[in-house]
Amino acid sequence: MHRFGLRAIYPGPNLSRPRKAHKKYPYLLRGKQIRYPNQVWATDLTYVRLPGGFVYLVAVMDLFSRKVLSWRLSNSLDASFCVVARQEAIDRYGVPAIFNTDQGSQFTSDTFISVLEAHNIEISMDGKGRALDNVYVERLWRSLKYEDIYLNSYETLGELQRGVDRYFRFYNTERFHQGLDYATPEQMHRSFVVEEPLPLAG
């Protein structure tokens, strides 16, 4: 089926199930002009089917440059791997003005939200069932899957880890984007960002 570009259709896991009674945050990006790096970051989850079951992938993206700032794989939907990816992005790049997520339980958990609030980061959340509210990360998943994952037969988490790492390095530094005037995300990010990360609040 891979040879002919076909994929078997299986019911996938629900990655956006909200935590009961979580605090509601508005969607802040509708009509917003994104003019510089670290103005808006976004994160999302996707899943990959391996022979042993589902594996889950989270990434944090800068929406101005489209650069993948951090990512993590996990074999469970526990919030911890999302928290690690969030913290790695902050440690490496400072803090954004706005952080956009969906309403999944990983991103509405106290451990994920508390650090954003501590740094006075505005929290934006997609409308329920509105994938277009996070369109750039959705496009990242499509690119990753159709340009790498569906073309390779990853058997183990370790193989997938190496493949995703290789692809995101290519995506950031070699893949030209029409929407960035044919620059790479790394070129776009570096053209606006000083070498030192933004100071953390608090």
Automatic annotation (TrEMBL):
InterPro entries: Integrase_cat-core, RNaseH-like_sf, RNaseH_sf, Transpos_IS3, Transposase_IS3/IS150/IS904
Domain of life: Bacteria
GO molecular function ontology, one term from the record: nucleic acid binding
BP GO annotations: DNA integration
Signal sequence extent: none
Segments forming domain Integrase catalytic: 33-193
SUPFAM superfamilies assigned to the protein according to its UniProt record, in alphabetical order: Ribonuclease H-like
NCBIfam families assigned to the protein according to its UniProt record, in alphabetical order: transpos_IS3 (NF033516)
PANTHER family, alphabetized: TRANSPOSASE INSF FOR INSERTION SEQUENCE IS3B-RELATED (PTHR46889), TRANSPOSASE INSO FOR INSERTION SEQUENCE ELEMENT IS911B-RELATED (PTHR46889:SF4)
Protein name stated in the entry: Integrase catalytic domain-containing protein
Organism, as annotated: Alkalispirochaeta sphaeroplastigenens
Lineage of source species: Bacteria, Pseudomonadati, Spirochaetota, Spirochaetia, Spirochaetales
